[in-house]
Amino acid sequence: MYLKTIHIVFFSIFLTIGTTASFSQEITTKETLQVNANELLTIKDTTKVDSTKKKKAILEGIVNRKAKGYEKIDQRKKEMTLYDEAELYYQDIELKAGIIVLNYETNEVNAGRLKDSLGNYTQYPSFKQGANLIEPDSIRFNTKTKKAIIWNSKSKQGELNFKAAISKRENDSVIFMKDVRFTTAKDVDNPEYYFLARKIKFVPGKKVVTGLTNLVIADVPTPIGVPFAYFPMSEESISGFILPAPGQSNSQGYFLQNGGYYFALSKFYDLAVLGDYYTNGSYGLRAESSYALRYKFSGRINLRYENQIQSERGFPDYVKSKQYNIQWSHSQDQKAAANSRFSASVNVSSSQYFRNSLNLSNIGATLNNNLSSSISYSKTIPTLPQVNLSVTATHSQNTNTEQINMTLPTFQGSVDRIYPFAPKSGTKKGIFQNINLQYNLNGKNEIVTSDSLFFKPQMFKDGKAGFQHSIPLSTNFKVFRYFSVSASSSFIETWAFNTIRKSYSSTENEVVTSRVDEFGAFRTYNFNSSLGTTIYGTFDFGEDKKIQAIRHVMRPSVSYNYNPSFEQYYDTYAIDATGTTMAEYTRFENGIYGAPGLNKSSSIGFGVGNSFEAKVKKIDEKTGKEEIKKVMLLSNLNLSTAYNITADSLALQPLSISGGTTLLKDKMNINFGTNLDPYAIDNSGTRINTFNIDNGGSLFRMTSANMQINYSLTSSGSDGNNKSKSQNELNGGRPDDLFGKATDLNDNRQSLFDKNKDDKEENKSSENYNTKLPWDLQFAYSVTYNNSNRQSEISNNSLMVSGNIELAPRWKVGVSTGYDFAQDGVTFTQLRFERDLESWRMSFNWVPYGTNAYWGFFIGISSSMLSDIKWDKNKVPDRILR
């Protein structure tokens, strides 16, 4: 491809001279000369009428040329010479060289370099057309035969850099090269490795075919080589085979993993079909496809299936299981549609897939107990008032209990708020002008099933469906200038397509609950109001103090909630054979939107929110000047409780306290909470209508408490949260490394730490490295205290840590581990080592113990074009199938 562009530029140079007759002369100039093609190609004479047919001008534009030394035209030799910093520009072509010689009789063009006063070569030829750049030692080109010879040419094709001793161009589409180096290293003159090919046939834009080729590392030839090689050079994706990675497992035997075929179906979508095979008969199949349409949407689909066998048939530990996983992520570009949006995030699998999967890329998701999915479409109708519609399908799965909850689908519709008494212009004031109402519609089809019944007809038989209409009416206003009052009331009508019936069965001698597939409806209403204000207080300590002042913001509120009794929707049933003992129930029990309340509730709620910040005198690190800064001490501290006026006992609700703050430049988040019960409990742990202080205890009885601390920090000061979603996160794992980094055998060239370095950072590799070590650190601490039944126990107390550090230039070390203080044991632990070998990469990944224990070593070329040149060795986990 690059020699094709050389032909164009030299062809234009030759035509710049054409066949113009001139006398030998020498012009010394530094100015740029503009040469018109028509003037050069037209020979002037005294004949007014010329019967010969004029030649058509070939050049389609003006050629600009200049030379620092001189421009020389020799009519006797039919040559033109541009010397010293010779330059030529024509359309999108740029040619620069020390010397350019054009012979317009033999149609040959020569360009070369010059020697300086020390005898060193300078001003190498440089040809550029568009984004393509070629820098040879010298070139020779014939405009008639279209043949060219180039010495020591350097070019770039995709990720490969070429340097050929001699290149010979036969025609427009075929180039032959001799003694060619090609490498993915940036410095082609001094690469850390290269492939030496004795002969190469190069078809620009299509393919490269080589003869005997062997690998050279640090200028030392190796016995690694091939008799021939083929490289497709198309700019578009090309289908091809994906070589598998071999290994050995104690349970499944020898294996080949992640081998298959890549289908380049279109520039908008592709498909990769991968498979694993184990000598004991286990196998896995995967289909991965990515698609994108600019300014419209993009997405990715993964389908995975594994047939797993453990041990041998006839042995007691023989287990055979089938596992699957379906992933789909779809995002719509914001510019695609103004009033509608479609998105999808699907992760559906058998409950034991990520725990039993034989592919290491799933290791981060083995510690996650929940899978979730969502597919949604929303539409906004720009009317007045505005109408919003959405349809959503959701999926939630607990991999421990193997219970699956799905909504297929959920429909939501709403009409924006309407202010019937508001003025047509100006602000709304008072109770009546702020009265507003809206309409909401919600419909669900909910399915609760288990992993064994998933995708089977039985899962739909126990589904529940219904609709709920709600019309909220609210208003807000000010009283006594500083107090805000809000009041609201809601009317709710619920439609249920599935109800129940309870009756005593004399044959079974127990109460039987039967499902009734019939339509039913009930209507409820409620009333809520609240009164609140904001109080500001400042404690001044003096301007000469380091802490000059502390500001306290308090937001107290009082609320009233009323929910009437809806006993008209309740029936009675006999609970024994006598038929005299009756119990109440509603046929809407366990409904998709709950049941109408039987007991009237009228309660008063009390709450107060607090925040504290300080005004601190600090010295700025950059300027060294003293500045006043605000520091958040406690971002929120909330207290709330309630009193039920209609309750005959246990009217006072527990006091709930929660709070949180950020420290260390917002890198550390701390959240805490506790529940304080004013009532005592009996010996069985049941709350009794006696205050705890009257039962010999304290004012409040702490029933539970919890605290979480999350900390993330890097040496550069960034939070490191700007990464795109990894496959580990798409599987259901954490976005950080606290559960370890997923090891994907299908793409080991990806860096373990996802660190992108620019050229400036790479050039610092030879500098003293003991002053600054790039690193990042994340840790999470969680503790939970439980005392609901006087057990006074720490039910959860764990610390998880993950960190990476660059100990030396191109040396990286990482670890993910933790400790469970409640269970007194070390949690999942992973050690990571990586060596950046510029164009190559070497890594070692090790999980020393546990169900996911494994180790893996890899060394190979980082470039995807030469991804099959690698060596890796893995000891995969020995799964115990469940």
**Major sheet characteristics:** 30 strands, antiparallel
Distance between the termini: 57 Å
Which stretches are poorly predicted, pLDDT < 50 over at least 5 residues? Answer: 1-48, 56-60, 718-722, 757-770
Total number of helical segments? 7
Number of beta-strand segments: 56
Mean pLDDT: 82
How much beta, percentage-wise?
over 45%
Approximate shape: elongated
Helix content: under 10%
CA radius of gyration: 39 Å
**Class based on secondary structure composition and strand pairing:** mainly beta
Provide an overview of this structure:
The relative contact order is 0.06. The protein starts with a helix and ends in a 7-residue tail after the last strand. Helix content is 5%, strand content 55%. With 882 residues, the protein is mainly beta. It has 7 helices and 56 strands. The strands form 6 sheets. It has a 30-stranded antiparallel beta sheet that branches. Strand 35 and strand 36 (510-516) form a beta hairpin. Among the domains are: 1-42 and 59-148, lipopolysaccharide transport protein A fold (Sandwich); 667-875, no CATH class.
Key words describing this protein structure:
30-stranded antiparallel sheet; mainly beta; 56 strands; 7 helices; lipopolysaccharide transport protein A fold; disordered N terminus
Short description:
This protein is mainly beta. The protein is 5% helix and 55% strand.
Question: What's the helix and strand layout?
Answer:
Layout (H helix, E strand, L loop, with lengths): L1 H16 L7 E3 L5 E3 L1 H4 L22 E4 L3 E5 L4 E12 L2 E11 L4 E5 L1 E2 L5 E2 L3 E4 L2 E3 L3 E5 L5 E10 L2 E10 L5 E9 L9 E11 L3 E4 L2 E5 L2 E7 L2 E4 L7 E3 L2 E5 L3 E11 L7 E8 L4 E11 L3 E14 L8 E14 L7 E10 L3 H4 L13 E12 L5 E12 L4 E16 L11 H4 L2 E15 L7 H4 L2 E16 L3 E14 L2 E7 L4 E7 L3 E13 L2 E6 L6 E17 L6 E5 L7 E5 L14 E19 L6 E19 L10 E9 L4 E10 L1 E3 L5 E5 L9 E14 L12 H4 L28 H4 L12 E12 L6 E16 L2 E10 L4 E2 L3 E8 L2 E8 L6 E8 L8 E6 L7
Antiparallel strand pairs: 1-4, 2-3, 3-5, 4-5, 5-6, 6-7, 6-10, 7-12, 8-9, 10-11, 12-13, 13-14, 14-15, 15-16, 16-17, 16-18, 17-20, 18-19, 21-23, 22-23, 23-24, 24-25, 25-26, 26-27, 27-28, 28-29, 29-30, 30-31, 31-32, 32-33, 33-34, 34-37, 35-36, 37-39, 38-39, 39-42, 40-41, 42-43, 43-44, 44-45, ...
